[in-house]
Amino acid sequence: MENGNFIVNFLNWLMSFEPKAIVLAASAIGAGLAMIAGIGPGVGQGYAAGKGAEAVSRNPKASRETTITMLLGAAVAETSGILALVVALIMLFGNPLVNLEGNALVIMASALGAGLAMIAGIGPGIGQGYAAGKGTEGVGKRPKLQSQIVRTMLVGQAVAQTTGIYALVIALVLLFANPLLGL
Amino acid sequence: MGSEGFGPRIAFYIGDIPVSETVTVTWLIIFVLGLFSILATRNLKKEPRGLQIIVETLVSTVNNLTKQNMGERNLAFAPFVGTLLLFIGISNIIGLLGFRPPTGDLNTTMCLSITTFVLTQFFGVKRKGIVNYSKGFLQPMPFLLPLNIIGELANPVSLGFRLFGNIVAGIIIMSLLYGALGGFTEMLLGITVPLFQAGVPAVLHIYFDMFAGLLQSFIFTMLTMVFISGAME
Predict the structure, then answer these.
(1) SS3 assignment, position B18
(2) At residue B14, what are phi and psi to the nearest 5 degrees?
(3) E strands, A70-178, in order
(4) Rg for chain B (alpha carbons), in Å?
C-alpha cells in the first residue's frame, strides 16, 4: 500500500494512531457535528419571536396571550437543539464507545455518524418554529381562540418532531447498541 | 449517561439495590407536597384565609386549564394534571436549594411520559372502543400504518427527552460555571475563597431553574392534556 491513492494513505495514517485516540477524536468531532442541529431551533424560534412582535404591534391588548403562545411554541421548537445537546453531552461525559472492543474504524465512524444524524434536528427546529410563529400570529388576531390554536399548534409540532426522534434513535443505537460491531 | 460525569450520585444502598440522589430527592418532594396538602386543606372555611387562598387559586387555575384544553366533560383529569404540574414544577426548581432535580434523570422523565402514553392509549380505547380506535391508525391511508405507529411512539420519547435535556443542560452549565468561577477567583486573587461564586450565578439560576424549569413543566403538562384529549376525540 505504499503508493496507494489519497484515501488509502489517509486510512493508513489514521490506523497509525492508538485505537482509543481515534475513537476519542471522532467523538469530539461527532459532538461538534451534533450541535449543528442548533441552526434549526435558532431559525425557528427567531421566526416565532418575529411573528410575536408583529402580532403584539397589531393588537397590543392581546400581548399577554400572544407572548404565552410564542413562549410555548418556541420552547417546543427548542427540543431538537436539546436532543442534539444530549447526544453531544453523552459523547463528552459518558461516552460508551471508549471501552468498546472491536474495529477502531467502525467505532470511530459510529461516533461521527451519531453526531451527523443529529443534524436532522434542523428540520423539526425550523418547522416547529414556523408553526409557533403562525400560532402566535393567529392568537394575536383572535385572542379568544387561544386554547384551540395552542392545541392545534402543539399537536402539529409533536408530529413534526418525529423525524428528529428517528435521528435520536439512530444516534443512540450507534452509541449504545451498535449492531455493526457484531458483523 | 453513566454514573460518572453529571449523572445522579448514588446516595446509599439498601442491600444490593443502589438508591440514587434522584430517588431521595423525589421522596423529599413527595413529603413536602404531601405535608403542604394536608396542612393547607385542614379545617377549610367558607371564607378562605391564609393558605386556603393559595390552594384555592391553585385548584381553580388547574381546573380552568383542564377545562380549556380538554373540554368541560374531561374535568375529571384535573387532579392528574395538577399533580403533574406541581411535581414537575417543584422538581425543576429544587435545584435552587442545592438539590439535584429528579427531572435531570432520564428514568424520572421517561416514567412520567410513559404514564402519559399509557393514559393516552387507555382512554382512547375506552372512549372509542378498540375497533374504532385501531382504525384511526389506518388514516388517511392503510399503508401509513407503520408510520402512524412510530409517530405515536415518538410522542412519549420526545416528551421525556425534552424535559430531561432541558434540565440536565441547566445542571451541567451551572456546574461548569461554578467550576470556572472558582478557578477564576483563585487565579485573579490568589485565594481559595470562592468569592465570585456568590452572586454572579444568580442570573443564570433565574433563567435555567426558574424560567426554563417552570416553562418546561407547563409544556409537559400541556402536551399531556393535548395528547390525552386528542386520543379521546
Answers:
(1) strand
(2) -105, 105
(3) none
(4) 22
From the CA of B4, how many Å to the nearest CA of chain A? 7
d(Cα B66, Cα B83) in Å, to the nearest integer? 12
Q: Which CATH architecture has domain A19-176?
A: Up-down Bundle (1.20)
Tell me the shortest Cα–Cα distance from A32 to chain B, in angstroms: 16
Q: Does A98 touch chain B (CB under 8 A)?
A: no
The helix/strand/coil state of B195 is coil
pTM of the predicted protein model: 0.83
**What is this model's ipTM?**
0.75
B103-126 pLDDT per residue, tens: 988 899 999 999 999 999 999 999
Q: Which of residues 76-115 of B touch A (CB under 8 A)?
A: none
Q: Which residues are B10's β-sheet partners?
A: B20
- Pick the closest to residue B155 from B191, B124, B177, B180 (CA basis): B124
State the average pLDDT over residues A142-169.
Answer: 88
Whole-angstrom distance, CA of residue B186 vs CA of residue B116? 48
